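User: Here's a protein and a ligand (zinc ion). What would the complex look like?
Assistant: Let me lay out the input and then the predicted complex.
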Amino acid sequence: MSNELKVKFWGVRGSYPTPGAGTVKYGGNTACVEIRAGERTIILDAGTGIIPLGRELARTTPALAGGARERAGELLLLFSHLHHDHTQGFPFFVPAYMPNAKLHIFGPDGTHESMKNVLERNQSSETFPIGLRDMSSTKDIQAVRESQVIVWDETGVRVAESAIGLGDEAVIIRIHKSYAHPGGVYVYRITWHGKSVVYATDTEGYVGTDRKLVHFAKDADVLIHDAQYLEEHYWGQLEGFPSTQGFGHSTVKMACEVAAASEAGQLILFHHDPSYSDDMVAGMERTAKSLFADSVAAYEGLEIVINRASTSPAVLLSARERDVKYAENG
Ligand SMILES: [Zn+2]
Ligand SMILES: [Zn+2]
C-alpha cells in the first residue's frame, strides 16, 4: 500500500470552463482536485475537472466496477460550496452511474436550501435528462458543520464530533467556515499521517490577512488558495476589467500573505480567472514566487507528492509534462 499523500489537479479554472488555444498550458476545466491517501480517494469539488477524473477512476479502480459480492468502491466528495463552477461536472461523473460505487458526499450546512435539494434541482427533469436518484451508485449526501470532523479509517467513512483518539492511519478532514465569499464557503484541511493539505478556494483576502484562515492553515504542507485576480484587475485599474472587490476572490498578493503567515510548505494558486490567458497566469506565478518562493500556479495534470517520511517541501511531479504539452500546443 502506498504511504504517500498525493494531490492531483483536474480543474483549476474559476467561474466557467474555458477551452481554446489561450488556456492550453493551465487548462480550462473548472474546480476539481483529487487527494489520494494511500488507497483512499478524496475529491474536492465537482467542477468540469471531475469529468476526466471520473473516467480515470472508472478505468483504474476495479472495486467501482466489481460484482455484487465485491466490496463497494468508496469515494469521498467534498463540496466547498454549491456555486455552478463547483457542481456542474457532477452529472457527468462516471462513477456516479456505477452500481458498485458508494459516494460519500459532504458539504455546507446552514444554507438557504439543503445541499441535497440543490444537487437534485441541478438534475431536475427541466434541466437535465437524468435525475440524481436515477444514477446507479449509492450516494450518502450529508451537510456537515464547522465543528465536526469527517473521518475515513479502516471502519469506513463517518462524521465525528472530534478527532481525539484517532490513529495515524485515519484520514481526518477538518472544516473552516469562511464568510469571505458570497453565501459562505468551506475551507477543508485533509490530514493523514501528520501531513496536511488545505483547500481554500473562493475566498477573498482581508486587509492584514484573514487571521482565522491563517490559524486554520497553520503549517500545512500544501496550501491551495484562490488567486483569481491580478492586483490591477481587483482594484479596477486594468483597462476593460471593472473592479472585482467584494466578489469573494483573492489576488496573488492576498494568497501569498496567507501562505507566509501560516508558514505553509507550498502555495498553489488556484481558481484562475476565465478571461485570463496562459501568459497572464504565468505572470501571476512569477509575481507569487517573488512574494512566497514555493509558489506554483495550478494546472491540469499537476501532481504533488507529500512523502510521509520526509520534511522537505512537496515534490512536483509533472512540471515537465506541462511544458511538453504547452510546447506541443503552442
Ligand atoms: Zn468558484
Ligand atoms: Zn463561488
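Summary: The pocket of zinc ion (ligand 2) is lined by residues 81, 83, 181, 202 (CB under 6 Å).
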